[in-house]
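Weekly structure sync, notes
Attendees: PL (lead), two postdocs, one rotation student
Agenda item 3: pending single-chain targets
PL asked that the sequence for the first pending target be pasted directly into the notes so everyone works from the same version. It is reproduced below exactly as submitted, 278 residues in total.
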Amino acid sequence: MPGKYQDIIVEIKGRIGIIKFNRPKSLNAFGGNLELDTIAAFRELNDHPDTVFTVLTGEGRFFSAGADVKAQSEGDLDQFANDAEKKIAYMQKFAAIAVQEMMRSMIDHRKVFVLALNGPAVGGGAGWFEGVADIVLAVEGAYLQVPFSALGLVPENGSATLFAQSVGVRRANDFLMFGRQMTVEELEKWGLINRIFPKEGFHDTVVKFLEDQLEVNDGKSMMESKRLQNAPLRDGRIMAVYNAVEALAERFVNGAPIQRFADKKKLLESKSKSKSKL
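Predicted structure, written out during the meeting:
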């Protein structure tokens, strides 16, 4: 499969398909061709005749740093005739077809979807995948953090619903509303993380763990268990993705994220200038 993808690596190891984010210099932040590559890879592995597990993980020290705050555009709030026009414009902006199709491809994926957190996950990296995965494995010492409220945003791409389904409403609120950094050790106690493995040889350990499951358990039975669990949840999850886009657009109509992103960019720029003087 070399050459098929720009920003991910796809491997097949027996009955295990592996998708690996491969933008380590940018901490696997969303950008480049990452989202389109991920959609194509999920589609390819969904139809693969031999695999049972689809593993999503990352190359380097981060799973994903989410969006690049430095790349966020402040936009022009004076170009709209009224708030209704402004909201429609922002809904068109945030209803990114690639992101929505990536979420749908994970929600509808036939194989057992295993998220293997090889390092910290922030923002979308911590919010988009954990609630929809069937099994979540993590490297020791990793953490998750979603600064949605701090930036005047809302939980993105259905994560409010997906996390509530995984850990319950109050724990989901604690994580998504307050934005505190939580270790995978804490989240294992909450039931979001299934297993934690040592940092040394993490990816190999994940493969060995899944191979051990395949030695004991019938692959088709595991896939059917996933299908039966997820079937009644599917439509609600798809609707949750849409609802999050609508709520996010409303926040931008209010203008709060614009100012908070501007303040964050100034802070980052000032830190960068301070480092350059050293």
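Discussion points:
- The first helix runs from residue 34 to 46.
- The chain is about 50% helix and 15% strand.
Action: rotation student to compare against the earlier draft before next sync.
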